[in-house]
């Protein structure tokens, strides 16, 4: 046994990469189940108040929702390209792409903020604060509660993702990553794809009817 | 040129700072052990206060609100701060890497973070306890938990944070077992304790996030009146019960599966035999982990769910008994004609098997809707889940504490004293909870501070049992603390066990092994003359 191996696990860099990947997949599973509680609540109350939920969906700004979907899907493609660039030993390009994806995430949050401002003006607020006159209160206040929880929790994940992508982008641009060591970029990319996929479930159930 | 290696993980840096910043899984395990023991003590004090209040009908030492707070804190402390983390976080952290021949867990920094999350969550919950304390019971049933004026919020937030500590620990174990097994250690050579921790980890990472979300929803309900669980606002309190028990019933297996792992190890070590039907123990572990997710509705037989739903959940619940029975038969098969050494871990093991069998068989009766409705929310249920959760978890915890004490500290403890304490504890448990089965069958409801006088004799018997338990625990604390300094030096393998963890020194050096261990045989293979003789 060479002495330097004593400070490491028995396995190689490959084994560590495998552990990191597995850890990320398990983490993604826990994230999906975290949202599963909210999706369950949505399904239950949609079956209890079908008309009210449809009416509430019609008041959503489909245009802004679709714009946000477009932004997130684009950013996911950009992140995939960034991972590819880093693996191809072009960390500068990879870093630039990661920062571009982070920027798209920031724009997403901005659009979300505009939407929230609309709701606040109209009184489409959760629970007790609900004052929106277009849809009757019973059931609709639940729709808006779940709307804020789902989109708010998702926005929290976007915020975390933007920070992760920014740090990875800066470190990649300074040449930390490359074909020999791309694991953090790959894991960050996986996380961003998760955020994207969750939105692809949130968007149709809240905006499209 | 590296500095000379320290003798053991205990002497590798002696400052408090070296412990607080350690990435060594063994030190993290020891820290978790200390923390969980502390909360076991706190929860035990609450339990004793409850038992003293119930000694006489009417007011004995506290009013009704204080009683409600007391049983809430007892439940919260015992469930989330002791039983769920005790074996996986303390013993799992210490032993899993040793058993699979790894130098550490897959993510050591994440492991340290889980200690701090636990401390943070526990502190917030404890702070809530002193700021008035919740009076909801550990189940936080809505709509009561969303309307009561007591400090529910800090307890919810505390448990939410502790949940993340649990998730990180489980995630770490899954990655560790998958990727860091020493060369030659195949899945079917894994020690049974590792299998048990692995099964537990799967439940932890899949169930805990749902609990986190439902606690967050209750918190929001209290803060902004979200209305999800409030019938007055169009919500449904039963949704809370569904989501809560989707976590909390599997959580019972988070407590019991690691216990079963400890028992499997102890049974092999103290009967000097290879595990009888190793594969069946493994498969039944995974079976319990799987079926555990489809049993939550048996908590809701009295909620008005459909008859078909109750029947289906009842049948699924009974399946758990089959997997458990496989394990009990395997342990008995291992003990049969073994070269049995009556040491304290084995005494606790026998106690565990009694409680698991007795409590489990009653559990099958509870899974029957008609019987369940008779016993619903009575002391019978309290006695049943104490038999399973406390009888099993605490017995296995004490077995683990005694079995691995020489491994962790390098010292032995006085064996006769330990055997005496073990017998005292087992009889204390029986004396505490058998009267509660009878009380419940007579109709004494749970969570009541007061009762009609004709229940008093059984309550006195139960409190007497609880006092026996308290004496037993104090005795254990006393002789183990004494042994830390004055016990005989253990040597690498004081029990003569064939478990993989005993291949390193006791206490182990910082990186567990100097050369990669080899695994020519499976776990617990006692190829010694004793086994030949027994066969």
From TrEMBL, chain A:
Subcellular location: Cell membrane; Membrane
A Pfam family: COX3
UniProt domain Heme-copper oxidase subunit III family profile: residue ranges: 1-209
Superkingdom per UniProt: Bacteria
Gene Ontology terms describing biological process: aerobic electron transport chain
Signal peptide location: none
Keyword 4Fe-4S tagged: no
Cellular-component GO terms for this entry: plasma membrane
Main location: membrane
Transmembrane segment boundaries: 20-45, 66-86, 92-111, 146-170, 190-208
InterPro entries for this protein: Cyt_c/ubiquinol_Oxase_su3 (IPR024791), Cyt_c_oxidase-like_su3 (IPR000298), Cyt_c_oxidase_su3-like_sf (IPR035973), Cyt_c_oxidase_su3_a-hlx (IPR013833)
Membrane topology: Multi-pass membrane protein
Keywords from the named record: Membrane, Transmembrane, Transmembrane helix
GO molecular function: cytochrome-c oxidase activity
CDD domains: NorE_like
Family, similarity comment: Belongs to the cytochrome c oxidase subunit 3 family.
Alphabetized PANTHER family for the sequence: CYTOCHROME C OXIDASE SUBUNIT III, NITRIC OXIDE REDUCTASE SUBUNIT E
Annotated protein name in UniProt: Cytochrome c oxidase subunit 3 family protein
Originating organism: Corallococcus exiguus
Automatic annotation (TrEMBL), chain B:
Biased amino acid composition, Basic and acidic residues: 526-535
Region (Disordered): 506-535
Main location: membrane
Domain Cytochrome oxidase subunit I profile: 11-520
Compartments, record wording: Membrane
Segments traversing the membrane: 28-52, 72-98, 110-130, 150-171, 192-220, 244-268, 280-301, 313-334, 346-369, 381-405, 417-438, 458-482
Keywords: Electron transport, Heme, Iron, Membrane, Metal-binding, Respiratory chain, Transmembrane, Transmembrane helix, Transport
Pfam family, one: COX1
Cellular component annotations (GO), alphabetically ordered: membrane
Membrane topology label: Multi-pass membrane protein
Gene Ontology MF terms in the entry: cytochrome-c oxidase activity; heme binding
GO BP: aerobic respiration; electron transport coupled proton transport; respiratory electron transport chain
InterPro entries: Cyt_c_oxase-like_su1_dom, Cyt_c_oxase-like_su1_sf, Cyt_C_Oxase_1, Cyt_c_Oxase_su1_BS
Assigned protein family: Belongs to the heme-copper respiratory oxidase family.
PANTHER family: CYTOCHROME C OXIDASE SUBUNIT 1
Identification of the protein by name: Cytochrome c oxidase subunit I
């Amino acid at each position: 046994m060479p002495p330097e191996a004593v400070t490491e696990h028995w396995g190689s860099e490959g084994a560590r990469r495998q552990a990191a990947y597995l850890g990320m997949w398990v983490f993604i599973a826990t994230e999906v189940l975290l949202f599963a509680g909210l999706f369950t609540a949505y399904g239950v109350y949609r079956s209890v108040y079908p008309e009210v939920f449809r009416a509430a969906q019609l008041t959503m700004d489909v245009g802004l929702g679709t714009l946000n979907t477009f932004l997130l899907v684009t950013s996911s493609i950009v992140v995939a390209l960034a991972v590819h660039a880093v693996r191809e030993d072009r960390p500068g390009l990879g870093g630039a792409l990661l920062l571009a994806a982070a920027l798209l995430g920031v724009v997403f949050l901005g659009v979300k903020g505009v939407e929230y401002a609309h709701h606040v003006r109209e009184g489409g607020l959760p629970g007790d604060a609900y004052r929106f006159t277009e849809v009757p209160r019973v059931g609709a206040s639940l729709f808006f509660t779940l709307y804020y929880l789902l989109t708010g929790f998702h926005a929290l994940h976007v915020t975390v993702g933007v920070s992760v992508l920014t740090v990875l982008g800066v470190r990649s641009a300074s040449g930390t990553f490359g074909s020999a060591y791309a694991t953090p970029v790959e894991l960050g990319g996986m996380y961003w794809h998760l955020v994207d996929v969750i939105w692809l479930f949130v968007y149709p159930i809240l905006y499209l009817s | 040129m590296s500095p000379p290696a320290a003798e053991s993980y205990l002497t590798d840096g002696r400052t408090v700072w070296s412990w607080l910043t350690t990435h060594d899984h063994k030190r993290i395990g020891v820290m978790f052990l200390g923390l969980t023991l502390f909360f076991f003590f706190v929860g035990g004090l609450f339990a004793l206060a409850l038992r003293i209040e119930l000694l006489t009908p009417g007011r004995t030492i506290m009013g009704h609100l204080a009683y409600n707070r007391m049983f809430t804190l007892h439940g919260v402390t015992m469930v989330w701060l002791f039983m769920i983390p005790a074996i996986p976080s303390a013993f799992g952290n210490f032993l899993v890497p040793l058993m699979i021949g790894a130098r550490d867990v897959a993510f050591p920094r994440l492991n340290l973070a889980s200690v701090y999350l636990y401390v943070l969550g526990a502190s917030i919950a404890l702070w809530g306890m002193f700021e008035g304390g919740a009076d909801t019971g550990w189940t936080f049933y809505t709509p009561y938990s969303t309307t009561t004026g007591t400090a529910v919020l800090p307890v919810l937030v505390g448990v939410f944070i502790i949940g993340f500590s649990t998730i990180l620990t489980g995630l770490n174990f899954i990655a560790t077992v998958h990727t860091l097994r020493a060369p030659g250690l195949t899945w079917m050579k894994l020690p049974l304790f590792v299998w048990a921790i692995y099964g537990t980890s799967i439940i932890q990472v899949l169930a805990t996030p749902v609990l986190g979300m439902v606690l967050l929803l209750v918190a929001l309900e209290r803060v902004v009146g979200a209305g999800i669980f409030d019938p007055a606002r169009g919500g449904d309190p039963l949704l809370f019960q569904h989501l809560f028990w989707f976590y909390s019933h599997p959580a019972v297996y988070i407590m019991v599966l690691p216990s079963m792992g400890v028992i499997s190890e102890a049974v092999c070590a103290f009967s000097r035999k290879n595990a009888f039907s190793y594969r069946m123990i493994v498969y039944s572990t995974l079976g319990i982990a799987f079926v555990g997710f489809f049993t939550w509705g048996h908590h809701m037989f009295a909620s008005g769910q459909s008859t078909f739903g109750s029947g289906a959940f009842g049948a699924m619940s009974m399946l758990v008994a089959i997997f458990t029975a496989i394990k009990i038969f395997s342990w008995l098969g291992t003990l049969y004609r073994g070269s049995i050494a009556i040491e304290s871990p084995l005494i606790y093991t026998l106690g565990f098997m009694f409680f698991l069998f007795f409590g489990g068989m009653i559990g099958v009766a509870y899974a029957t809707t008609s019987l369940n409705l008779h016993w619903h929310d009575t002391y019978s249920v309290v006695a049943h889940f104490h038999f399973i959760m406390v009888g099993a978890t605490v017995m296995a915890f004490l077995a683990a504490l005694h079995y691995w004490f020489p491994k962790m500290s390098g010292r032995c403890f006085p064996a006769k004293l330990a055997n005496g304490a073990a017998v005292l504890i087992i009889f204390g448990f029986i004396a505490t909870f058998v009267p509660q089965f009878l009380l419940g069958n007579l109709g004494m409801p749970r969570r009541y501070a007061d009762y009609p006088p004709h229940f008093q004799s059984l309550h006195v018997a139960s409190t007497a049992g609880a006092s026996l338990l308290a004496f037993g625990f104090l005795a254990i604390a006393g002789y183990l603390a004494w042994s830390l300094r004055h016990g005989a030096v253990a040597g690498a393998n004081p029990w003569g066990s064939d478990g993989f963890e005993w291949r390193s020194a006791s206490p182990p050096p910082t990186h567990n092994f100097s050369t990669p261990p080899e695994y020519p045989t499976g776990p617990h293979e006692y190829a010694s003359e004793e086994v030949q003789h027994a066969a």
